[in-house]
Design goal:
Layout lengths: L8 H21 L28 E8 L21 H17 L8 E7 L2 H13 L2 E6 L7 E6 L4 E10 L2 H6 L18 E9 L5 E8 L7 H20 L13 E6 L12 H8 L3 E2 H6 L7 E3 L2 E3 L2 E6 L3 E5 L5 H5 L17 E6 L1
Parallel strand pairs: 1-2, 7-8
Antiparallel strand pairs: 1-14, 2-4, 3-4, 5-6, 6-7, 8-12, 9-12, 10-11, 13-14
């Protein structure tokens, strides 16, 4: 049985003061200053880490669809109070949330943060998280002028970036045009502008190699076939990236892989959307949450018209999964107008965190 790490009221107040100090520089520069108290996250007992051991082979990784600001409009989220959709308020919440989870395990900071729907990367988030968390980063913007993309932030004091690669899923349209298969919709439908980001890292102390990938698949539930094709291309291109990585001496070895993302696919709909089934069976990936909890989370995306588990931290060729961050309770996500985002959660998705041992 795991023992849950918890904090009392005095520790909570101390954490809040630490957040104030770290975020004070950002607030002073903010022309549209928000009241920090109105953006203060509740430190829910439901989102406490379990006690776990760490060593040089341990990785603490987060996956989070943070909701692109271009989509955070009242027209898309009419159940929300308008101030909840304000960028500055949402950023304060996001920063506090990550700092809070990090503070629960003060000696074990995040090694990797994988964000989907990450916008304002070159103008804001790149420097913001570099200053706040002392992390370097890489980024893949969606194609055809889309404003968001996938980003991987990493602890450069422990991990050295060796190689990286961007996968643009629009290439499916060109590849499928060469085949004779019959599709139920035009080929141009595959031009979704989604991307994935692959990276090879070396742990500086142990020289252990680990591959980290971040992806956001197409959202539309009417086109599950597109998501399946994207998943298959994702696995094929990731395997090729690993095979061609120049630092690897033993080409036949199975290297640890951490794959984060918003797959826009639920685990219990194989008959209409087989992406999860493909990833966990044919592709051979293990879901960290399903492995440790016995099943997937009830939801990772929660709005009044949709609730479901569509975000995952997958892994492959690792020795152990020792910990995950529990999801919030239904009461917490529904307490304001029946869904996310709200004054406690900055996105319509929730964050996932896993501790993996290589």
């Amino acid at each position: 049985m795991f023992n849950v790490l918890s904090i009392d009221a005095e520790e909570e107040e101390q954490l809040f003061k630490e957040f104030e100090k770290k975020l004070n520089v950002r607030e002073k520069k903010n022309k549209h200053k928000t009241k920090l108290e109105s953006c203060r996250i509740p430190y829910q007992n439901s989102r406490q880490f379990f006690n776990t051991s760490f060593d040089a082979s341990s990785i603490k990784i987060l996956s989070y669809n943070i909701l692109c600001q271009a989509y955070a409009k009242y027209a898309n989220f009419p159940h929300c109070e308008k101030n909840v959709l304000n960028f500055d308020c949402r950023n304060e919440l996001l920063s506090r949330e990550i700092l809070f989870y990090q503070s629960l395990q003060k000696n074990y900071p995040f090694h990797f943060l994988c964000f989907q729907e990450l916008d304002y990367y070159p103008t804001f988030y790149k420097n913001h998280f570099s200053q706040l968390l002392h992390m370097d980063s890489i980024y893949a913007q969606r194609t055809n002028g889309k404003l968001d993309g996938c980003g991987i932030f990493f602890d450069a004091s422990q991990y050295k970036l060796i190689e990286k690669q961007v996968l643009e899923f629009n290439q499916l349209e060109k590849e499928l045009s060469k085949e004779t298969i019959q599709l139920p919709f035009p080929l141009k439908t595959f031009l979704t502008d989604n991307v994935a980001l692959f990276a090879c890292f070396e742990q500086m102390e142990t020289k252990q190699i680990v591959f980290v990938a971040n992806v956001h698949l197409y959202w539309n539930p009417e086109f599950s076939l597109i998501k399946l094709y994207q998943s298959k291309l994702l696995v094929k291109e990731l395997n090729q990236f690993i095979d061609q990585c120049t630092i690897l001496q033993d080409k036949g070895k199975s290297w640890p892989i951490l794959l984060c993302g918003d797959f826009n696919s639920k685990p219990d709909e194989a008959h209409i959307n087989p992406v999860y089934d493909y990833m966990t069976n044919e592709a051979g990936f293990t879901s960290c949450y399903a492995k440790l909890c016995g099943k997937e989370s009830g939801f990772t995306n929660f709005v009044p018209h949709f609730q479901g588990c569509i975000d995952y931290i997958f892994c492959k060729h690792v020795s152990d999964i020792s910990n995950v961050l529990p999801i919030p309770t239904l009461e917490e996500v529904k307490k304001e107008n029946g869904g996310l985002p709200n004054s406690s959660f900055p996105s319509d998705h929730i964050s996932l965190v896993a501790h993996v041992h290589l």
